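Example is below:
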Amino acid sequence: MATTPAPTESKSRPPGTRSVLRDSAFLRLWAGTTASGLATWALPFVLGLAVLQRELGAAGLGLVLAARTAGFLAAVAVGGVLADRHSRRAVVLWSALAAAAAAPLLAVGLGRSLLLMTAAAALAGAGQGACRPAFQALTAEVVDPGRRQQANAATTLAVRSSTLAGPALTALLAAFVDVATLLLGIGLLWLVAALLPGRGGPAAAGAPDAPRPRRASLRAEFVDGIREARRHPWFLAGLGALTAVIALGYSATSVALPLISRDRYATEWVLAAATTAYTVGALGGALLTARLRPRSQGWVAFAGLAAYGFAPLSLMLPVHPAVVIGAYAVAGIGIELFNVPWFTATQREVAPDKLARVSSLDFLVSYGLAPVGLALIAPAIHAFGVTLVLGACAAACFLVPAAAALVPTARHFGRPPVRPGD
């Protein structure tokens, strides 16, 4: 399998001898990625505040968020191709600038034009979708292979921390500024994401700006990325398992947890505590994976992914709220035990000149099927009952990753790692 070479600027030092947090190139990329993650999280929360303040209706909120999702899915595949064709830094720049431009349009349309807000949300989603695979590939250019897991864990820590602290901070700001100003603040975050990251190293096929004699169509190059993904059985298995957990497990708990918190426990506290526990668990999982180097990395990652099944399982029976909260904490730990090694293995094993396309396939499939799961879970609960649906989804969370772990090359997410003295 192809191995991503270390960037030119990192070859002068042995990988892993210096903390990635002392690398200025990574810190700029980390700050930009964190800003984009915070902006991505903040938009639906701020729009929710607009609903509370009666500047946007519930139906309008659904339409705007659907437009953002549609923009994301439409752009993520194109963004992956462009990031492999051209400078990944340039793709991050222009996609984040597009998302930044959407923020003032949303502010102008708020309370005035739902059509303008819908179009602006689609533009914001497109910017978000195009920059995601480019950020993933740029990490492989900026950070040498020995420190990528630490880099991915640091990025996850930043995003999870902002998700944990963000609601309180945004609610505090909302006491002093209006929703339109908060939307402009989201635009400033996207400007940081656009302008702060530095230039990456050269891609495997040559410098990103090097002229190539012949170009295939966007469709042909995306299909070429699919072929590259098919070369890695562990990737296809992991993508299938991740999609099942998101589309079934995550969707089921997203719908069922608010209902159960209200109807079974008669309080919103369980909902808030469980979602907070999930984020805190994810922070712990990211800290753990920054140092964890198990011999069977893939098996540990799939076990972590399967741990999400404890979340729907805890909602099936009238257990003490502490059981639900603990299950969500375990699920949070497990999801990062999967995510960080998954991103690191993709950066290591996939051919460098196809990395953005393969990453875009990851986002396209796993995120693309999530709305389908959300749309089907509520009717399924109405037809079959919440206990049966949660049980089926919990079983899928446990069984699909277990089956994926049996696929060839899944044990190590590719080749077994080379250890000193082997």
About this structure: The first helix runs from residue 24 to 52.
